[in-house]
Backbone:
């Protein structure tokens, strides 16, 4: 049908590679329990992990937040504030919006995102499938961008799908915040409705 | 003045509305008829049966949200009102599925376009799929009945610029365009139909049929997912449901059973086959879930010199059927051209980019216009649609392979949409495709589109119209229900929703669902009354 879709052998290879990766991640979790984790541990310098420490996160683990804190600046790009405090609060609000979105997806989609985060967080699959060489807390903007472009441009559907999953949830969480509407030149619901509609009076009160 | 807080007032007046999230113990209820789903099909059925004096219970998996909740907030709306928090997709993730999950079903979030079923489609059903009594003359009174009930009229307000560009472009190309009829009453022309209408202008089942049934003594139970129908011999005995918490996701542990003389399944395409598969109803020819159709949609976006503000104004008011029947009814698929509303989250989720590329598009958002093509799937021989199966957790999932004829129709549609946008003065046009840049002239675009890879996940596709999977027809070897939605094997089971279509339609489906549900419910009421 189309020359850019991988041939059956490569698909098969990829499927094995993916399952192998998830299995490797599982092995690492076990290693972690016995005290020799290869995963990064809590780093108090990462804004994502200090964000809203009392919040009851419904889906995202601390490690997921570390991964997204590394990727969000590349996903949001020039829209991300440069100044540290503004950046941290923008990041943490976006992570909260993402966590809510993950929760609302329900169990089947959550399972897929869980697999994806596991794959990104296990050192072996981070190195072999994501080809990101640093621990996430140390991943630079350039490394994050290169990773996103690799998965976006990959000839393997599964990486395209993972890329789209990551950026869609991120973009939706970012641009859905009224504070970021102006980055799209969107003025919000028509101004007069705030007076004319009872529910808008309540919402803005 | 709009009639605000419809449900608050109704409940004060004694409407029987049960929030299953609040159940403290398991319950068993009885009724004449239990209806599963409160969308176009279920809501209409409840209205007709309750008016006929039958004791009706409506069961809805989604929650009750109504005008006090509709604040034009995308995050809240998408996570509360749509299936899987608006992340439902086909099994290989190549087509995003927009589908409602709340009281009113997809009619609570739909874009109000209201078309009668095309005559070609009805004749095709009769001639090729063995559907009886579905010719345009027989159905005309049922369309008229619903058009009157839901105030369906051609939109006589000026289209917003987003729609106007489709009209301009078609006009310049010498192609067909027409104005869309909408199911609205005193519409404020705001443009937020997809987030729940904040003024109750939209005449979906949330503000029409469901309140009518409640006023006639029906019961509405929301936040209750129907897991299965227990059946014995040729009869369904009871339905079993699981209560979901106020987040719409978490299982509370409470369950309900409902016993009834008759059961109407109206969980729509994907949902209804899911219920029937879980229930293991007789299916000797393996038809349940087969031939599920989507009106698969591809899109182009244009950057216009002027301000478009695709977020304001009635979302759909102009359409073109220039290419709908381009190769005859059963030739390679034709498509209907329409326009989608765009708000920040919707746009950000549709455009497959990040970083600089996304910011560049965000900067031009107010000048962005978009056209969509809705492909007429299921009419030609290589378009067999998709198949619904159950995941390990018993939730339904759609496998939808994209056939070669659909791929070539997508390419055809990108070309024609880009041509329309350039004809209307676009500065640049881009197909919504991972490998497509913005092209600055029709010539460039034409060349570029011809070379775009036709591949899953490179092309960004979606559907807002799910149909089929419980096909109607008189031959049990080819269908699940007969021409009136009555199950071939279980005598007290009917299906009244978009899942009974044997093909897609070639027009937005809500009016077809309303009309068939109204007709089939009148027949059912007669049946139930005569053997009361
Ligand atoms: C964003 C959007 C825009 C649209 N725009 C238009 C338009 O402009 N014009 C048009 O004609 N059509 C439009 N549609 C499509 C149209 O609304 C649907 O085709 C129509 O509502 C289908 O009717 P239905 O009864 O089959 O299903 P729905 O209206 O979707 O109702 C099905 C209901 O069943 C419930 N349900 C499913 N499974 C279960 C279960 N196990 N237990 C309990 N409840 C269950 C669901 O939660 C849902 O509420 C649009 C749809 C969307 C999503
Ligand atoms: S345009 Fe606005 S007022 Fe009109 S039906 Fe849609 S949401 Fe309601």
Residues:
């Amino acid at each position: 049908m189309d020359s850019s879709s991988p041939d059956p052998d490569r698909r098969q290879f990829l499927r094995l590679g993916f399952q192998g990766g998830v299995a490797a991640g599982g092995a690492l979790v076990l290693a972690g329990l016995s005290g020799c984790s290869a995963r990064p541990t809590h780093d108090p310098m990462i804004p994502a992990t200090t964000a809203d420490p009392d919040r009851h996160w419904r889906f995202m683990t601390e490690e997921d937040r570390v991964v997204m804190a590394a990727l969000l600046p590349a996903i949001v790009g020039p829209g991300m504030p440069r100044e540290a405090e503004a950046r941290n609060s923008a990041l943490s609000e976006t992570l909260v919006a993402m966590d809510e979105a993950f929760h609302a997806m329900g169990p089947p989609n959550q399972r897929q995102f869980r697999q994806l985060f596991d794959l990104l967080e296990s050192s072996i699959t981070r190195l072999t499938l994501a080809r990101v060489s640093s621990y996430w807390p140390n991943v630079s903007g350039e490394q994050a961008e290169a990773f996103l472009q690799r998965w976006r441009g990959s000839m393997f559907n599964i990486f395209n799908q993972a890329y789209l999953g990551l950026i869609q949830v991120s973009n939706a969480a970012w641009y859905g915040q009224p504070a970021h509407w102006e980055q799209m030149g969107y003025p919000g619901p028509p101004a007069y409705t705030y007076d004319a509609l009872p529910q808008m009076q309540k919402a803005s009160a | 003045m709009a009639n605000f807080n419809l449900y608050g007032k109704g409940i004060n007046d004694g409407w029987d509305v049960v929030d299953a999230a609040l159940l403290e113990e398991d319950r068993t209820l009885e009724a004449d008829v239990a209806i599963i789903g409160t969308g176009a099909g279920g809501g209409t059925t409840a209205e007709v049966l309750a008016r006929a004096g039958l004791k009706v219970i409506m069961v809805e998996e989604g929650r009750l949200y109504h005008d006090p909740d509709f604040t034009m907030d995308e995050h809240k709306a998408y996570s509360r009102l749509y299936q899987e928090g608006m992340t439902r997709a086909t099994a290989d993730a190549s087509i995003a599925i927009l589908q409602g999950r709340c009281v009113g079903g997809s009619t609570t979030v739909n874009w109000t376009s209201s078309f009668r079923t095309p005559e070609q489609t009805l004749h095709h059903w009769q001639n090729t799929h063995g559907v009886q009594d579905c010719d345009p003359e027989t159905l005309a009174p049922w369309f008229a009945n619903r058009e009157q009930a839901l105030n369906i009229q051609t939109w006589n307000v000026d289209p917003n610029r987003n729609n106007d560009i489709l009209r301009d472009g078609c006009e310049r190309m010498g192609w067909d365009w027409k104005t869309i009829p909408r199911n609205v009453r005193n519409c404020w022309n705001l443009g937020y139909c997809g987030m729940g209408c904040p003024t109750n202008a939209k005449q979906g089942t949330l503000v029409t049929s469901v309140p009518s049934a409640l006023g006639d003594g029906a019961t509405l139970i929301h936040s209750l997912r129907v897991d299965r129908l227990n059946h014995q011999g040729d009869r369904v005995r009871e339905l079993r449901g699981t209560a979901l918490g106020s987040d719409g996701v978490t299982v509370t542990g409470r369950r309900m059973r409902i016993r009834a003389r008759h059961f109407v399944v109206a969980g729509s395409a994907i949902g209804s086959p899911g219920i029937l598969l879980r229930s293991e109803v007789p299916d000797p020819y393996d038809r349940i879930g087969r031939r599920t159709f989507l009106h698969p949609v591809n899109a182009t976006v244009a950057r216009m010199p002027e301000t478009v503000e695709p977020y304001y104004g009635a979302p759909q008011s102009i359409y073109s059927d220039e290419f709908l029947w381009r190769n005859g009814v059963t030739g390679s698929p034709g498509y209907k051209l329409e326009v989608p509303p765009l708000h920040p989250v919707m746009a950000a989720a549709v455009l497959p980019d990040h970083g600089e590329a996304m910011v560049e598009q965000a900067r031009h958002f107010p000048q962005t216009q978009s056209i969509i093509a809705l492909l007429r799937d299921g009419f030609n021989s290589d378009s067999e649609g998709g198949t619904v199966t159950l995941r390990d957790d018993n939730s339904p999932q759609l496998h939808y392979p994209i056939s070669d004829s659909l791929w070539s129709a997508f390419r055809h549609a990108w070309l024609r949409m880009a041509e329309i946008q350039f004809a209307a003065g676009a500065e640049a046009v881009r197909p919504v495709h991972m490998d497509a840049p913005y092209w600055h002239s029709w010539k460039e675009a034409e060349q570029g589109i011809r070379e775009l890879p036709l591949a899953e996940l490179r092309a960004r596709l979606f559907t807002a119209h799910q149909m089929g999977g419980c096909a109607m027809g008189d031959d049990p070897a080819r269908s699940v229900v007969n021409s009136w939605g009555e199950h071939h094997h279980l005598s007290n089971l009917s299906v009244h929703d978009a899942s009974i279509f044997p093909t897609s339609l070639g027009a937005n489906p809500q009016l077809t669902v309303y009309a068939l549900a109204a007709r089939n419910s009148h027949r059912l009421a007669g049946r139930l009354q005569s053997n009361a």
